[in-house]
Design goal:
It is built from twelve helices and nine strands. The chain is of the alpha/beta class and 304 residues long. Helix 6 packs parallel to helix 8 and helix 9 crosses helix 10. It is elongated.
Length: 304
Amino acid sequence: MNHPAPSFGSRRSGRSGRSGEARAREARATSGVAASLRALDVRPSRRLGQNFLTDPRVAERIAAAASGEDAILEIGPGLGALTERIAASGRPFVAVELDLRLAEHVESLLRPYPNARVVRGDILEQRLESLLPGSGPVTVVANLPYAITSPAIEWIVNQGPRVTRAILMTQREVAQRLAAKPGTKEYGGFSVFVALHAETRVEFRVSPGAFHPRPDVDSIVFTLTPRPYPGSSAEERAAVERLSRAATGGRRKTLANSLGHGLGMGADAARALLERAGIDPGRRAETLSVDDWLRVARAEGAAR
């Protein structure tokens, strides 16, 4: 599984509560991963939030969460902490890895499995129908680096109904944004986007000790299930994405000002649009729910 950015919020894992056996097990796992990385001449990037999974128990839990009959797409297999566990199930399996050294390593792990293959490249430049031709359902698994979390989730939900679910591990901060409620500091355009296109469910927390290099914060494994927001059309969802992203860049501005600036239409025109939607122009953008944004989108559409 991709071994990037495991961070979540500001929770830190102290060493005082762990037994000597647990510390020794962590040290053995970490030293094995570190040695493998040195042999491949791979240096984890802290700037990109790249941390490699070392705890096999976490890998087992993720593999169990991804069990079923679906084909599997793994984004960023890294050293293959999860890869073999899933490939051994016999389901169609494709791993997409950007780092050529890691891709070669994972290919060597997958030689015994005729159902599995590695694609070298950036997942954001791939299409699902090319990776897994056909019409069968697909489950995505990934430990997403912080730098590509938002675009990777957008890629997943934009692949259409073949993706039935995604088992993802992200920084705690990202999961907070996914589940954020209107009016909170974490809530923004990305929160609206995810709510428009998917449901999310937290599976379990992963402590910093499960990775190398050891991050400062927790990670979260969650299931993302793509689905259209109830009662909305594709055109309305696209309009909500555009409107919410245009407005949520100015958190200290009134909605009329931030939306008017973001859309290049001016505050007066934005105020008139919001009034037609029954939304107070003096509110802040981060206080609007998805239903509120749908009202704005529908008012905009009716005026055309």
